[in-house]
What we know:
Strands 1-2-3-4-5-6-8-7 form an 8-stranded mixed beta sheet, sandwiched between helices. It has helices at residues 22-29, 34-37, 46-62, 109-123, 139-148; strands at residues 6-8, 12-15, 65-72, 78-85, 93-100, 129-135, 151-162, 165-175. It is of the alpha+beta class. Helix content is 29%, strand content 33%. Helix 4 (109-123) packs across helix 5. The two termini are 25 Å apart.
Amino acid sequence: MDVPRLVAGDSFVLRSWELGDLPLVREASSDDYIPLITTVPSVYSQEAGEAFVQRQWERASTGSGYPFVIVRVADGRSLGTVGLWLRELNEGRASLGYWVVGSARGQGVAAEALRAVTAWALGDLQIPRLQLYVELWNAASQRTAERVGFQREGLLRSWQKVGEERRDMIMYSMLGTDLSSPAAC
């Protein structure tokens, strides 16, 4: 399956991963949190960065999901990622995840990317339910989900392993029927 190119607002595009995105992987590797909750290497090397990019290609080629890189149109700089994961598609749902490197936070990058992938997944792909999970402390990510129109559903206790410990997560969802809501996308 091919990762499509999507427009995300006026300032960003979403595309598949390239080896030219290794500076993004390097910056994400130095983040205190991103490597704990993703497969981004916690210690960057050329080989580890390339292996990360190749894993993204494998996810697309095996049909397990659509990993997108968020790119700023003005300068072509890669700023983060948003992924649509299809593990539960046979149950009528898919999950989303996103991260933005520290140097690009607070600029609406994640919200624009999440809005674009959400509209595409609910509209073009006709996935009935999208869900995402956010840690309790991560107010910025909660605001991003809510800004796009995701509904907070509740607390999932000890839901996900982050680093070496299990952590509570807040579940958010959006349904295809929510697209008609003024707050959605």
